[in-house]
Amino acid sequence: MDQDTLDRLAHHHLEVGEAESRTAVCVNLESVLRSPKHVRETIYNLQPPSFRMLERMIDAEGYALPLDSLKESVIAETLDLARRVGSGQILGRDNGLVVYRRVLLEARRNELELDASEAALLGVLRRELKIRQVEHFLIEHHEDFHPLWNADHAFIGALNGLRSSGLAYISGSLLRFPEDLVPLARQVLGLEAGAAARKRLFERLTGADASGALEAASLRTSGTKEEKIQRLVDNYVQPTEVLTLVPLATLREMCREVELATGGSKDELVTRLVRFFALGYDIRPKPTDPPPPPPEPRHLSPPSFEALFASFRGQDLSDILSGIGASRMTGSKEQLVQLLQESRFSEASLMMELDSKQLDAALVKHRLRAGGSKREKTQRLLELFSRPLADHPNE
To answer: For residue 31, how many other CB atoms are within 10 A of its CB?
Structure first.
């Protein structure tokens, strides 16, 4: 962080003389700007177009947006959101929203920032009127609020507000949101997942389940399945609200389809699915196993290979298979030799899995000299079985 930014944040958030050294300033700022209380109060008091800026940042790759053309796109998207709110496409139901809008507008008119007591009363009102957290921020796009924020300097004001609060910072050509604050920001905004993630999740619903979710949200239930899903997304209906209405058997099947665990209570399944889609695991490429190492070159012909390992005890063969991590280590001697034949390892590598006593026993059996290193012992056996089988000494 450059000194100018540090000085600006310290001026806004630290008392004069609270810290002198740069290290002390940074430590004190960290404790203030990362506190849940500061994040909640800051986000709660932001007005459009801050909502759209925050929504885009916490959904973006790396939680960063290019500054180039950001102003034009954010203003256009904010005005489109305001248009949809004004036309009733969003927040079109009456129950409680008009009352809440009037109370919120009055609070904003008295003093633009909401104090702690006003925020608490609005929270109670939302619960009583069954207004979702995200709808608090959407309501501020209504035309009644336009005089409070819809001005030429709206974008600059929103950008400066986010930066002065420490919720956004400029890095090169990017506007960034602190990664560690993303979960808290989502909670305050009432956004469990981004629009794209919500849509991907809702597309796994049946048409009937989508209709049930729309009805529960007091939204129009007509149209095709695609139209119903888009209506849920456009109205910021959150995944937990929707999945809670879905039968348990359907939730288990949804988990199965994306290879999630299917055990647990309904609440656990809902949490599992929401997190999976919110983090984008459904569209991330599945990790692929690295290609197996190439087969090691062998020195013996297949018949000689078979004769060498058939001369070991069955327990020796099981020990070799265990050492190379084979999935199977039991069976007849013929089966164990076949498993070794099918492995990618050379004769020397396979015999090196045995201990010195096992190799000595094999050498004595073939009337070869025991002793020496394991490498020397395996080499003697290889030399013996490299000869024609008829030349081997009698056991």
So the answer is: 11
Say if residues 135 and 234 touch (Cβ distance below 8 Å): no
Could you tell me whether strands 174-176 and 64-66 are parallel, antiparallel, or unpaired per DSSP bridges?
antiparallel
* Long-range Cβ pairs for the range 145-148 (8 Å, 24+): 145/47, 145/48, 145/105, 145/108, 146/82, 148/47, 148/108, 148/109, 148/112
- The model scores a pTM over 0.85: no
Mean pLDDT score of the chain: 89
Is 388's pLDDT higher than 90?
Answer: no
Point out which residues pair with 66 in neighbouring strands: 174
Q: How many CB atoms lie within 10 A of CB 389?
A: 10
Q: What are phi and psi of 149, to 5 degrees?
A: -140, -25
Instruction: Supply the Cα-derived Rg of the chain in whole angstroms.
Output: 34
| Span 219-258, pLDDT tens digits | 999 999 999 999 999 999 999 999 999 999 999 999 999 9
Determine whether 49 is exposed, middle or buried from the number of CB atoms within 10 Å of its CB (0-12, 13-18, 19+): buried
Residue 286 pLDDT grade (very low, low, confident, very high; cuts 50, 70, 90): confident
E runs forming strands in 130-245 = 169-171, 174-176
Instruction: State the angle between helix axes of 116-129 and 97-110 in degrees (0 to 180), rounded to the nearest 10.
Output: 170
In a 10 Å sphere around its CB, with 0-12 CB exposed, 13-18 middle and 19+ buried, how is residue 103 labelled? middle
Averaged over 14-22, what is the pLDDT? 58
Taken as a whole, the chain contains a residue count of 395
